[in-house]
Design goal:
416 residues, alpha+beta, BirA Bifunctional Protein, domain 2, Rossmann fold, 2 domains, 8-stranded mixed β-sheet, 5-stranded mixed β-sheet, 16 strands, 21% strand
């Protein structure tokens, strides 16, 4: 019998939950502090919905199967299609814009690499119904807030920002027809992940000539927004949008975390405007989080046209980043009182004490069988901040001693 988890999946023992909860707590705290409302959904999704969002090839990338009634379903690979479905279902009654977040477990059947597994947890932040740059600014600032709550130094990462709308304008200026733009985006997103020759083959298969391929690649060498603006023209709506966003991020106090990078494209086809990805400054890991504007997704699944922007923030990479920075150490012990007793005769008194502590709002862990004092205190020191041991003399006196396990200070506590 093999006791390991299935390939690409993870078990979380209590010691593993310390880091996971630290990440989750930072995510939830940041989202709530920015006014996002939490939602959730079933872990299985209609395969048809995923195909509408990502195309027929998605079936090879997800855990897809038929249920006992022959319906085609899949484990969710991301939350955005589900979010779009849920919003479309109540589009007539929701008050827009909506700001929603979730922490969802997602599954993707693909080749595993450093920082990528076949299962992960992900924070999703989405704003639906806002078409201004304030939407992008809000989700980026909330993600930076989460990083700070985890203790990640600002200098440890940067959010690289670009725009598919800007890239479309630049492709137009280079004489590449709009019908090829979507294919160019997907191909150029593979730059650095596969040889240029293979990417050029993909572009040629879509109908681009050698000269057009070279022009498309040249765009990814643009090093600044000013350089892109010089090509796009003074009246470029996409350049104006990025400049507005950068000004808003300055007001949020996170502009120092954001840099323009024309090579950020995002592989998912539903993005329509600004896109962004966060990477560690040493370049050791995959993207920490990423997202962008997806104004057409609700329409694609049958909803009414509604602008939207969002991001996904996975737990695997940020967990590795915290470890590499040496800040993944266990958090300080929570306030926990260990309650023990010497013999069966003291069980009732110890149990009543533990119940009373819990009723008073404290955390209390009651030992489940009698123990000698030395054994009890040795075990309590690993998990608890305080301890009470009830012996025959304590029961007779009606009081015991509450010990602070860090300072060794003691105070009396009544047993009744």
């Amino acid at each position: 019998m093999d006791f390991s988890a299935p390939r690409g999946m993870r078990d979380f023992y209590p010691e593993d939950m310390i880091l996971r909860n630290r990440v989750f707590d930072a995510w939830r705290s940041a989202a709530v502090s920015f006014g996002f409302e939490q939602y959730d959904a079933c872990v299985v999704e209609s395969l048809d919905l995923l195909k509408r969002k990502a195309g027929e090839e998605v079936e090879n990338q997800v855990y897809a199967f038929q249920d006992k009634s022959g319906r085609e379903i899949a484990l969710r690979a991301e939350m955005t299609p589900t979010l779009a479905r849920m919003v479309a279902a109540r589009q007539g009654s929701l008050q827009f814009p909506v700001k929603w977040f979730c922490i969802a477990q997602c599954f993707r059947y693909e080749r595993m690499t450093k920082g990528r597994k076949r299962e992960h947890y992900q924070l999703n932040l989405d704003i639906v119904g806002e078409d201004g740059a304030a939407g992008e600014a809000e989700v980026i600032a909330a993600a930076v807030c989460a990083m700070r709550k985890m203790g990640v130094p600002d200098e440890a990462y940067r959010v690289r920002l670009s725009s598919r709308a800007l890239l479309s304008e630049l492709l137009d200026k280079k004489g590449i027809d709009a019908k090829f733009h979507s294919g160019v985006f997907i191909a150029l997103d593979k730059k650095g992940k596969m040889p240029r020759e293979e990417i050029e083959e993909i572009l040629r298969a879509d109908g681009l000539g050698d000269e057009e391929c070279a022009k498309a690649f040249d765009l990814t060498d643009i090093s600044s927004l000013d350089e892109a603006a010089a090509i796009a023209g003074a009246d470029s709506p996409a350049v104006a949008r990025i400049r507005e966003l950068l000004s808003l991020l300055e007001l949020y106090g996170v502009a120092s975390q954001v840099v323009f990078d024309i090579s950020v494209i995002r592989g998912l086809s539903y993005y329509t405007g600004v896109v962004f990805e966060a990477f560690d400054t040493k370049g050791e890991f995959r993207a920490i989080f990423g997202g962008g504007r997806y104004d057409n997704l609700l329409t694609a699944i049958g909803g009414k046209p509604t602008p939207a922007v969002g991001l996904g923030f996975g737990d695997v990479v940020v967990g590795e980043l915290l470890k590499s920075l040496g800040i993944a150490d266990p958090a300080p012990k929570r306030d926990l009182v260990a309650v023990g007793y010497m013999t069966e005769a003291q069980r009732a008194a110890a149990t009543r004490l533990a119940a009373r502590l819990r009723g008073d709002g404290r955390n209390a862990s009651l030992q489940l069988r009698p123990q000698k004092a030395k054994q009890f205190f040795a075990a309590a020191g690993d998990k608890a901040t305080h301890a009470v041991y009830v012996g025959p003399d304590d029961e007779q006196a009606g009081t015991a001693r509450l010990k602070d396990l860090a300072t060794r200070e003691q105070s009396e506590i009544p047993l009744s």
